[in-house]
Amino acid sequence: MNLKSTTCFSTRNNKPLSEYHSQVEAEGAAVFANSQYKLKLAPYHCERCGAWHLAPRNRQTPSTSCNICTDSTGHAKELYQTQKAAQQRAKIIRKEKGVQLVVYQCPYNNGWHLTKTAARRK
Ligand SMILES: [Zn+2]
Ligand SMILES: [Zn+2]
After folding, report:
1. What are the Cα distances from residue 75, in Å, to 17, 59, 67, 70, 92?
2. Which strands form 76-80's sheet, in the order they lie side by side?
3. How far is the CA of 109 from the centre of ligand 2 (A)?
4. pLDDT by residue (tens digit) across 97-118?
5. Dist. CA 6 → ligand 1 center (Å)
6. What is the pTM of this model?
7. Segment 55-95, tens digit of pLDDT
């Protein structure tokens, strides 16, 4: 059974995400997707709806919010736990939005941020 979320949508295609009630259930679905469709998915716990969803494994970039740094809109910047996670996120954003980002180490916390490079071309 595949329940569709009414609160959470894919950032890629805006389709409702599948919703699972436990990690075990979500992991089972991930294994199934892998064997059927060769999709590498990993369960994650959604803070928004409290259920579990699946996300492509290579999109999982553990991050928290920095308590000091803010972006140009005044929001707390994402703080990535590893440089690799930040680079991975930068790659995804470049692919999906065409925005070039560079990774730099947070001067205050133990983690990494992304920032826009100066636009060189139009
Ligand atoms: Zn959710
Ligand atoms: Zn910071």
Report:
1. 26, 22, 10, 5, 20
2. 63-70, 76-80, 112-116, 101-105
3. 6
4. 999 999 999 999 999 999 986 5
5. 8
6. 0.55
7. 887 777 778 889 999 988 888 899 998 999 999 999 988 99
